[in-house]
Design brief:
This protein is an all-alpha fold and 115 residues long. The chain contains six helices and no strands. It is 82% helix and 0% strand. The protein is globular. It starts with a helix and ends with a helix.
C-alpha cells in the first residue's frame, strides 16, 4: 500500500471517528479497502452503511459486487433486487440501470453454474 493510500485511509478513518454517522466517508473508506484487497473491512463498512442508512443507494451495487467476489451469490442477488427498489423510489435512474445490469449478469452466471 502506498503512503498516499495509507494517508487517505487514515484521513477517512479520522472523519468517521469524529462523525460515526457519515455514510459518505464510510463508503469512501470501504472503496479504499476494497481496492487494497481488504475485503473483510470493506464488507463490514458497506454492511454498516446498509443497516444504518438503507437509503444510501450506492452501497447496493458495491456490496453486491463484493458479495459476488466472495461467492455469496444469493446475497448479491437479494441486494441488487433491494437496491433496484431503493433506486427507483429515489428516481436514481442511472443507479437503477446499473443494478439491473448487475442483477441480469449475476442471474445468467447463476443459471450457467446450475446447468
Amino acid at each position: 500500500m502506498s503512503s498516499d493510500q495509507q494517508s487517505k485511509i487514515k484521513q477517512l478513518a479520522r472523519q468517521i471517528k469524529h462523525n460515526p454517522g457519515d455514510s459518505f466517508s464510510k463508503f469512501a473508506l470501504a472503496l479504499e479497502f476494497r481496492k487494497e484487497g481488504e475485503f473483510k473491512n470493506a464488507r463490514i463498512l458497506f454492511e454498516d452503511i446498509l443497516s444504518s442508512d438503507p437509503d444510501y443507494v450506492g452501497v447496493y451495487y458495491h456490496l453486491g459486487k463484493l458479495y459476488e467476489a466472495l461467492d455469496r451469490l444469493d446475497d448479491a442477488q437479494t441486494l441488487y433486487q433491494k437496491g433496484i427498489t431503493v433506486a427507483n423510489e429515489q428516481d436514481e435512474q442511472r443507479t437503477e440501470k446499473e443494478l439491473k445490469e448487475a442483477l441480469q449478469q449475476l442471474e445468467t452466471e447463476m443459471e450457467e453454474r446450475s446447468s
